[in-house]
């Protein structure tokens, strides 16, 4: 179960999209929290559209927060992870 919110902004050829997700993961068969998947994810996309060439170029940044390796009390929380991609379309 989760919740996601998105905010998009366009100005001329520039655009951005920010998405925040909060997810509560649970194995309903065993009634155990599924902690390996992060509970918070932030996606930040920034781009530019070359209107005369109908080409878009944008960066997509993903930040994953609050994950854990397993349910053991000795299992450390994952560090925040980042992923950045560059797209052309």
Q: In words, what does this structure look like?
A:
- With 89 residues, the chain is mainly β.
- The chain has one domain (2-88).
- Helix content is 0%, strand content 61%.
- The chain has no helices and seven strands.
- The protein has strands spanning 2-11, 14-23, 26-27, 32-33, 40-50, 55-65, 81-88.
- The strands form two sheets. Strands 1-2-5-6-7 form a five-stranded antiparallel sheet, with no helix packed on it.
- It is elongated.
- The mean pLDDT is 80.
Global outline: elongated
- Tell me the span between the first and last alpha carbons: 32 Å
Given the helix and strand composition, which structural class is it? mainly beta
What ranges have pLDDT less than 50 throughout 5 or more consecutive residues? none
Average residue-wise pLDDT: 80
Strand percentage: over 45%
The number of domains: 1
The Rg value, from CA coordinates, equals: 17 Å
User: Main sheet, how many strands, which sense, barrel?
Assistant: 5 strands, antiparallel
Q: Got a strand count?
A: 7
Biggest sheet, spatial arrangement of strands: 1-2-5-6-7
Helix content: under 10%
Number of helices: 0
Helix and strand sequence: EEEEEEE
Give the helix/strand layout:
Layout lengths: L1 E10 L2 E10 L2 E2 L4 E2 L6 E11 L4 E11 L15 E8 L1
Antiparallel strand pairs: 1-2, 2-5, 3-4, 5-6, 6-7
Short description:
The protein has 89 residues and is mostly beta strands.
